[in-house]
């Protein structure tokens, strides 16, 4: 079957702004790959991430460069060998899965041997700001069962305490995005423990996280920037208690499925996470969310608008994707 590959960049406005330790943005820049055979087509969306040396032009070029291989019938396993993990591979991998589902009339879950997706509860993100501003945002979101609090280093204990006071009934996880140091770890960890935080994402820079082996962890610690693919897991033992699986890091659903199984077999808890993007990015990740310990697929909730059709959110509860969206 002759396959064609097209790719386009899109921007989607964020409701307000989204701020983490590395900066703020007001729109989500995504790249969408489409693969067709003349009768059916599949889509995959990815988010180029500067932290990993990615940009929209570079990801567009990397995807376009695969057009010949795709036309020659490149499959998902061939793709894993042909491209490094990252956003470009993710877009193509998810498009291939979507195309396979539309060709066969079977869901991606069925094709992948995964349980049928079910509604799951997602975290809702509170952007990094002053303690007072984060408390105000938390008050507006206090009805949500699980809040994810973005931190930034200096002043984080005050931020954690402010959010806890504003949302006393919500479960909390926090994400430092590599902003802590070995010297500040104990004080920040104590503040998280006092607030009943359940999980701390990536407290130390990925290239300095060996220090975690000698630091007390009364609250479980989750690797994010430190884990991309299955081969990363052996180094993380003794340093982390959980891993955050994002398809833009793994390079697609194919590797994410393998990483999920390997992480659980190695005793790690699993979070299924996302970048800020549309429902098309969230839909493949939802196939792994049903059996995850934590789900963070709130990207569309942070946008001013989503694509149509999009995922259906009932508060923080997200429903499986309709076939018109993906899979």
Per CATH, what is the topology of the largest domain? TIM Barrel
What fraction of the residues are assigned to beta strands by DSSP? Answer: 15-25%
Largest β-sheet summary: 8 strands, parallel
Radius of gyration: 19 Å
The first-level CATH class name of the largest domain: Alpha Beta
User: Please, how many domains?
Assistant: 2
**C-alpha geometry:** globular
Q: Based on the coordinates given, report the CATH architecture of the largest domain.
A: Alpha-Beta Barrel
Describe, in plain words, how this protein is organized in 3D.
By secondary structure, the chain is of the alpha/beta class. It folds into 2 domains: 4-106, 2-Layer Sandwich (Enolase-like, domain 1), CATH 3.30.390; 120-318, Enolase-like C-terminal domain (TIM Barrel), CATH 3.20.20.120. The protein is built from 12 helices and 14 strands. The chain has helices at 56-64, 67-71, 76-82, 87-104, 108-112, 131-140, 156-166, 182-194, 233-236, 247-250, 253-265, 279-289, and strands at 4-20, 23-36, 41-46, 120-121, 124-126, 146-150, 171-175, 200-201, 221-223, 242-245, 269-272, 294-295, 313-314, 317-318. The strands form 3 sheets. The chain has an 8-stranded parallel β-sheet with strand order 5-6-7-8-9-10-11-12. Strands 1-2-3 form a 3-stranded antiparallel β-sheet. Helix 1 (56-64) crosses helix 4. The protein is globular and about 60 Å long. The mean pLDDT is 97.
